[in-house]
Structure formats: structure tokens, C-alpha cells
Write a structure and sequence with these properties.
About 30% of the residues lie in helices and about 15% in strands. The chain is built from 13 helices and 17 strands.
Amino acid sequence: MTGAGSRRRSLAILAATLLVLTVAASAGAQYYPPGPPGNGVVISDDGLVLPVREIRDDGYLVTTTCWNEGVVTGGTYISHVEVVIDPGHGGSETGAVGSNGLTEKALNLTISNLLIEELRDRGFNAILTRTTDVRIPIVVRAEIARALKPDVFLSLHHNGGATARSDLPGTEMYHQIESANSRRLAGILYEEVQQALAVYDVAWRKTVFQGASSVLRVEVQDDLYGILQYTPGIATVITEAAYLSTPAEARLLADPEVQRVEAVAIADGIERYLTTTDPGSGFNPMFSTSRKLSAGGPGGCKDPELGDIGVDEPGFDDVPDGTHRPAIDALRDAGILDGTECGPDLFCPRQPIKRWMMAVWLVRALDGADPAPITESRFVDAPPDRWWTPYVERLAELEVTRGCGSGPARFCPYDLVTRGQMASFLKRAFDLGAGRPSGFVDTAGSTHAEAIDAVASSGITRGCGVLPPHYCPGANTTKSQTATFLGRALELVPRVPSLGGRG
């Protein structure tokens, strides 16, 4: 296996160090051009997220928290995630402050943590740009996103300053001017968040920006907000759920239950965006302005003490000893799982596996390497700029998948893979011959029955239950089950008798 994963494992990690090499920008600059696209992030044990500019034999060249350049050894490396959540403000930048003393920076982080938990429970891989009360310039937040190449990047905020009364929450979503994906995501999030908060009877406030909006900065003919401007090619949205500056709304937002409601609503919006073609609503005409934003730059920012960056120990913290751990560890060591972790040192073994992730694992298993970048895709729902699309395209070249529909051809990357479908993928991927009847009592009439017999005869599965034996063809395949299937197929772990247990 080649690529970032094997290079990472080859590092001789002896100590945790940070060397600041250069200062990136002056305090007075108004535009901070982002660095190169980046190559994943390194996360320290105390939660600092450092975008990687280059993977070296002795460590990582990174962008520091305050937009300096540094070298680190150690830490937990993550190459890709599906969703990056950016809790706005932090450190000396408090953001809005409610009459009850609730600061926006604290509220943003609390709801972001709830959101990450909700997303992972739904099977999405997601991380935060900050996990503590630390100041991070906007350009660094953007570099974190660019380094991870997510499908969704949200900068989570709460507003201040509105005075006009409203019957509905003054929810605002800001999208990129040139991105149809960002616009659609903003419209869906606006629907979900406003609807979720509208059930509360409070004295809402609003401005003309209520809805889903874009704002042109006339001077540069680009997005006003740097977080949108600095993340081209990524569906980026700024969320402003409600007005913390309004006493009634501040009291509401301090309620832990309301905080969870907001987090669930945002998760609902992200899931809708990724799994449907819903257009969203609440769109405003484009606004324009000549004003400059004074906050969020790196001027005067002082890098925090890095603390204990830690060592990227083998294994995942959330994988228990048992049936699936040997295969998960073997696939991790082979680099097959790189970029499909659900968080720092987390595998989320009970998450159902999606079709895009299955494609990544199968291609690496079959080819022993990552595919080359592509400029075109045969599937309309697998854009060439998604990091996992080359794996989908390669899986089609290998004739392991024909997609999920035609006219036009689709792959349905975020659909979950059932156990029956997984059997068919494995049969085609490993060219398994016809198997003898497996004896499963629940596969008759399944379109995947022959493939199920083949994987059972090959010792890849023992089914999902005994007395009598079942395969559960309609059940979703978890990541841990997929790892075990694949580990057995590759003979990284022993194959098993076809019946008599679970697998």
C-alpha cells in the first residue's frame, strides 16, 4: 500500500516538538490568501487541529493555529472526513454576548460538539476545527477544511444586533456566490433550523438577511466572508441560527435541550443535502457591500503552547476486543482504512458502511494502491472533485459495480450497503465461483442469493444467526462486519466454516 497512510506509519516518532519557522502575514492585511490545498490534519492530544502542508520522513510540515509554519512529530493524522464543523470565534474573540452572559464562542462550541455526536451516530465521519477555547484565524479554519477535502464545511455561529420583530426566528445562512452546492446546502439548512426553532414562543428578531443569502464584497468581486472565499470547491455555509443579542433568544439558547434541538436540525440538513436532491428554500437576492471585515485575521494572534501532541499508536480507541478487531487492525495496518476514520483514533465500528466508503476499501484491497486523480466521472452523483470519486470510477472499471441507476448513471454514494449487496460486491471483486447451498433460511428469493452462497462457501461469512441459520440479507452492513468480510477475503485473518456462528 502506498500513499499517506504508509508514509505516516514509517515516521520515527520519538518526541513531540513544534518549530515555528515563519510568520505568515502582517497584522494590517485585509486579505489572507490561503495556503496550498493541504494533505490532511494532525490533531494533538489536547485537541489542536493542524493542517498538514507536507508529510515528511521525520514528521509533518503544518500550519500552526495562528497561521505560522511549523514542523511536528507525532499526533493523530487524519487524511479526509465527510464533514468539518467550525465552531466560530474562540479565545480572545468572544463573538456576540447575551444579556445572561452566554458568549457566542462557548455556545458555538457546545452545539458543535452535540452536532459531531449526532453526525457520528448517523454514520457520518466528522471533526471540529477547534475543540477548546482557542483563537483561530479564519484563514487557518479554511486551510483545515481544504486539507481534509470534506463534502460539507459548516462555520457555526449565533448572531447579534437585530432589532426588528419577527413571527419566526431570524435564522440566516450564508453561502458562496459561485457554488450551487453551497447555495443548496444553505437553503436546506435554513429550512431545518428555522422550522426546529419556530416551535418556541419567544420575541424573535430578524434583519433583511433572514433566509439563505450571499454577500458580494465589491472591492474584490468575491464573497464578503473569508470562510466562504477561502474554500473554493467545498460546499461551505455559515450558520446563524438565532440572535444571541436578544434577551429572550439568549435565554432560549442557554437551554441544553434547545441546544440539542439546533444540533439535530443541522444534522438533518446535512443528511438531506448529502442523500437527496432537495433544492432548499428561503433564498434572497445577492447582497453587495463595500465594507471590510475587521475580525478573524491573524494579526496579533499568538500560538498556544502545543502541549502533548501525543503519538499515533496503532489501533482505534473504540474497537473492543472480539470477533472484528483482528480484521480492523489488519486493514488499518495495510492502509486500507485511511481517510475513513470517523474521528481522531475513532473507527465507529457500529456505523453502517456507505457505498463510497466500500468503494475506497475494495479498490485499495484489490489494487494495493490508491487510484490516480480523474477529471471525469461516469456517475452524475460522484463529482470528479470528491476525493473518493477516483475509487468509485476504478471500482466500475474493475466491473465490481454498475452503479445504482441509469438515465443518467448514478452511484448513490451515500446509500448504505446491505448484507445482500455486500455479498454481491465481494463475489464480483474476488471472482468467487458458485458456492454450494449455504443453508440460510432467509435468502430464498433474494437477488443476492447466489452471491451469498458463494461468500459463505468461501469462508467469508458465517451469517448473522444460528438455530436456524440466518444471513440477514436486508440488514445494513456495519463497518466492523465489512472489515471482517474483507479481512477474510484477503486472508489477512483466517476464513471460517460457512455456518455455526456470526460474521
